Amino acid sequence: MSRVPIERRLPLPLLAVWRIFYWNYERTTIPYDLMVMAILAFVWLTPPDWLGDPTARGLGLIGWLTSRLP
Amino acid sequence: MTLTGAVGAIFMFPLRGIIRACVALGIHPNVLTLIGVCINLAAAWALARGRFVLAGVIMVAANLFDFIDGKVAHASGTASEFGGFWDSVMDRFSDLALFLGLIYLYASLQRADYVMVAAVAMIFTVLTSYTRARAESLIDTCKVGFMERPERIVLFMIGAFTNRMAAVLWVILVLSVLTVAGRIYHTWRELSGDRSVPA
């Protein structure tokens, strides 16, 4: 008796998490681009203060944007 | 064309000329690999001194050599099994040197927390390549996981040029752990005969 693959048993949100864990997409594909964008968003938008960055200070881009809000 | 495909095509354009020049000058690809490693040591030194922008510039130069060595080998017909082995070993050396530079920096800033983050990321960086190499001695291929060397190097450059090295280290750490875990799982799955998803 063959087992049903785990990919077919997971609901969509968990499938997305599974795909990140069991990543087998090639470079220059749409999922790869989405992953790159998510990483760049994390790197550039997360305030250095939140991470206790030893070499950078402040709230970064988010801090700059929120300071422009009325 | 995807976004990363377009970026790759733009960067590949000037590299073609450099590759042609190396082939015309008869430079052996193994020498290019060695030059790349030596330049990477300078980048590690710059990271250790906290001079991130300088480190980024040096990393671009170093990885230029690292990128073109394989292409020059194929274009000049000098590709060999030893060349592949030499390239892989030197890549590990370059990776570890960069992490060592950051560990030295954070230690000199007395930030034991980031010394640990960089050290654990370094461990999983080594395991990323080791799991694949060991797995491929048992199964056909183990190309699972996002965080491979090109991604890691580009992230290092982004972290250096934009002074976001802490965030970059966290990304490398988390995705390297996932990559290693994914490769272990994939190898177990292949060896146990459950081949429901090709990788």
Which descriptors apply to this entry?
heterodimer, A: 70 residues, mainly alpha, 5 helices, B: 199 residues, Four Helix Bundle (Hemerythrin (Met), subunit A), 7 helices, globular
Describe what you observe in this structure:
The complex is a heterodimer of chains A (70) and B (199). Chain A is 61% helix and 0% strand. Chain A is an all-alpha fold. Chain A has one domain (6-68). Chain B is an all-alpha fold. Chain B has a single domain (3-191), classed as CDP-alcohol phosphotransferase transmembrane (TM) domain (Four Helix Bundle (Hemerythrin (Met), subunit A)). In chain B, 80% of the residues lie in helices and 0% in strands. Chain B is built from seven helices and no strands. In chain B, helix 2 (29-48) runs antiparallel to helix 3 (52-76). Chain B starts with a helix and ends in an 8-residue tail after the last helix. The model of chain B has no long low-confidence stretch (mean pLDDT 93). At the A-B interface, helix 3 of A face helix 1, helix 6 and helix 7 of B.
Q: How many runs of DSSP E, i.e. beta strands of chain A?
A: 0
- CATH top-level class of chain B: Mainly Alpha
Average pLDDT taken over every residue of chain A: 87
| Biggest beta sheet attributes of chain B | none
Structural class of chain B: mainly alpha
Total DSSP helices of chain A:
5
Query: How far is it from the N-terminal to the C-terminal residue of chain B, by CA?
Result: 23 Å
**CATH homologous group name of chain B:** CDP-alcohol phosphotransferase transmembrane (TM) domain
Helix content of chain B: over 70%
